[in-house]
Amino acid sequence: MKILRSYKLYSFGHRRIIILAAWFAVVAACGFTLKNTAAFEDFLSGFVGVQHMVIPCVLSIIALNGTLLANSPNQSNFGYKFFRSLPNAEKHFRRAVLGGNIISLLETAFVAVVGSFYLESTLMLMFSVVVSVVFLSIMNFVTYVENYFVKLVLLMVTIGFAGGIVGFFGEQEVTASDDVVLYALIACAAVYAGSLLYVLLNSKKFTRKERKK
Length: 213
Description:
mainly alpha; 9 helices; elongated
């Protein structure tokens, strides 16, 4: 598939992916092992729940930020000249961004499915999906922002929000109607769709802008 081939050109940091996979394996092992252990109920709803929000967010950073760095002349050590010498470099870049999004979404779905076997709170599970997709949406919206401090602030606010509120959503007495969950997921999907459209429509503009530098 052209999308995956283009993404593979820009992807780097396979060691990071291996570390992330090992990290999630430990989280899942904790979840399955401690599921029926009352003494670790708080740990399960706290630590394990937070990891289900953080891990997809970290993967989104790896999947999308690497593509951007490879396309930026300010980060020449990531192979900027090589990628610009490729035939149809602009199309490769756009497909690589799309590939990063697809991989991030699939990973989020996988983490959610695995978590559904041991996370007691369905609301927490749905919230982890919402946080992960919103984070990916922010990654898309800030992809072409050159000020990395602004990017960092936005991303840290998202992760901080998830970590601060997870305890609240992890409480058993906290419930939400199916309609509320459904509307939240619809709104989340709409925001993400807008972010994906934005990042793809502006990919050529960004590439040409960088070439003028």
